[in-house]
């Protein structure tokens, strides 16, 4: 566009509206706007149309269906909201409007609703159950404090510890306790304290404030970091009436940071009084012990003997021990000699020469027994052989032929067993004891003898 008044470039209404729309969309960045809903409309298309106003002005807004489906509450006239949007222009009517991309409830009401939703979710998961809470140590020598290094909470905690029990060591893990960066820093501080594993207990907290100020202690990441801590944690956020998600997850809740310090530290004056009582008891016990030792010293003094008499008694005792030692040595020597004689006799009985002689005698006897056994077995075998030969000779065909019998075979050397196998004119071979006879068959006869 030119600012020269002599330039008479003429725009149509649609060209003007289009140029204004492009100017708005390109020159204005993504905006965050807070205001109250009015003229809210939800047509069948699924898009939302509304006006966003404050006490002095209002602006038309549109939120298309693909964006408003992600809104997690029900907007209505009078609801205070915070939107992320871009400025634009509806060319058809030449109306300036905001195109909303994101919408959330503004103010304490939204935070309180978010608080209740997260509280219910974590309760359903069991993060508040007593069975998961760790007991506080009975004797604390080292406390870790996760809070702002310059806030009133750390001053109150250090003041209480210095008054009650100055010997307790304190490690400070400084973090922001409000703002967008606070939750992440608190989670990192909890991880560092658990990694170092030097503290007996941890105090996580800050002083009082609004719900927005305390909100980092209502973040889900902080709640889960407290739940997963291996070191017992005391939550001390705000004043006695303030409750945060951290209070429900922690192993113990203290109404204030000062109260947390008192819960973890013993009363030094009470301990001092106890020590004074122990001092009195120890003094009385020492006096009784000294008196007992004095009485024993008197008793021992009465029993004390002259050194010369004591030496004489010791000399007599030594002489008696000398005699017993000589007798014991003589008895031991005699026993050793007897054992030596027994061993010599046993050794002679196991002489190699005697062993060889006895072995030769056993071998000679064994050879004789073996010869007798072999001769006996040979005789038995010979007798059995003779009997078998006689039996074989009895059933032998040759023996039968010797008694006048003959074996008749045909020309094919087959044995003739019946008259039916022979015909007149056949040539047969007759085997007798000393040879064979060739015969010719004239006639056959079935007559039996």
End-to-end CA span: 163 Å
Helix proportion range: 40-55%
Contiguous low-pLDDT stretches (5 residues minimum) are: none
Number of strands: 13
Q: What kind of sheet is the major sheet?
A: 5 strands, mixed, barrel
CATH topology of the largest domain: Rossmann fold
Query: How confident is the prediction overall: mean pLDDT?
Result: 86
Q: Could you give the order of the helices and strands?
A: HEEEHEEHEHEHEHEHEHHHHHEEE
Structure description:
The chain is of the alpha/beta class and 449 residues long. The chain has 5 domains: 13-106, OB fold (Dihydrolipoamide Acetyltransferase, E2P) (Beta Barrel); 112-266, Succinyl-CoA synthetase domains (Rossmann fold); 274-300; 363-395; 401-440, no CATH class. 48% of the residues lie in helices and 19% in strands. Strands 1-2-3-5-4 form a 5-stranded mixed barrel. It is flat. The mean pLDDT is 86.
Which features would summarize this protein structure in a list?
alpha/beta; Rossmann fold; five-stranded mixed beta barrel; OB fold (Dihydrolipoamide Acetyltransferase, E2P); five-stranded parallel sheet; 449 residues; 5 domains
């Amino acid at each position: 566009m030119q600012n020269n008044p002599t330039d008479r470039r003429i725009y149509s209404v649609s060209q003007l509206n289009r140029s204004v729309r492009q100017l708005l969309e390109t020159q204005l960045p993504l905006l965050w706007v807070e205001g109250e809903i009015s003229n809210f409309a939800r047509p069948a298309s699924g898009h939302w149309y509304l006006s966003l106003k404050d006490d002095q002005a209002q602006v038309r807004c549109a939120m298309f269906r693909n964006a408003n489906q992600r809104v997690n509450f029900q907007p209505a006239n009078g609801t205070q909201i915070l939107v992320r949007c871009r400025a634009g222009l509806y060319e058809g009517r030449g109306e300036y409007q905001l195109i909303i991309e994101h919408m959330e409830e503004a103010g304490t009401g939204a935070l309180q609703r978010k608080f209740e939703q997260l509280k219910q979710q974590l309760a359903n998961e069991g993060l508040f159950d007593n069975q998961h809470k760790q007991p506080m140590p009975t004797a604390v020598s080292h406390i870790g404090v996760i809070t702002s290094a310059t806030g009133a909470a750390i001053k109150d905690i250090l003041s209480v510890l210095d008054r009650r029990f100055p010997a307790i060591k304190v490690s400070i893990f400084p973090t922001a306790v409000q703002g967008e960066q606070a939750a992440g820093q608190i989670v990192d501080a909890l991880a560092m304290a658990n990694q170092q594993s030097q503290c007996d207990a941890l105090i996580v907290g800050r002083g009082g404030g609004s719900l927005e100020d305390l909100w980092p202690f209502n973040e889900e990441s902080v709640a889960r970091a407290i739940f997963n801590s291996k070191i017992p944690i005391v939550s001390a956020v705000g004043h006695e009436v303030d409750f945060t998600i951290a209070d429900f997850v922690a192993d113990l809740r203290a109404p204030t940071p000062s109260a947390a310090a008192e819960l973890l530290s013993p009363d030094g004056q009470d301990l001092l009084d106890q020590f004074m009582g122990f001092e009195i008891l120890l003094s009385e016990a020492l006096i009784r012990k000294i008196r007992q030792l004095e009485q024993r010293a008197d008793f021992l003094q009465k029993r004390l003997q002259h050194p010369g008499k004591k030496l004489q008694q010791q000399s007599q005792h030594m002489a008696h021990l000398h005699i017993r030692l000589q007798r014991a040595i003589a008895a031991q020597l005699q026993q050793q000699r007897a054992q030596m004689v027994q061993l010599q006799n046993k050794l002679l009985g196991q002489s190699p020469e005697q062993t060889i002689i006895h072995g030769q005698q056993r071998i000679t006897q064994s050879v004789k027994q073996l010869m007798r056994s072999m001769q006996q077995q040979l005789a038995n075998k010979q007798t059995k052989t003779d009997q078998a030969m006689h039996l074989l000779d009895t059933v032998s065909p040759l023996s039968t032929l010797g008694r006048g019998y003959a074996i008749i075979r045909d020309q094919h050397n087959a044995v003739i067993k019946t008259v039916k196998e022979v015909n007149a004119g056949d040539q047969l071979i007759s085997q007798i004891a000393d040879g064979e006879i060739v015969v010719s068959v004239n006639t056959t006869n079935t007559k039996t003898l």
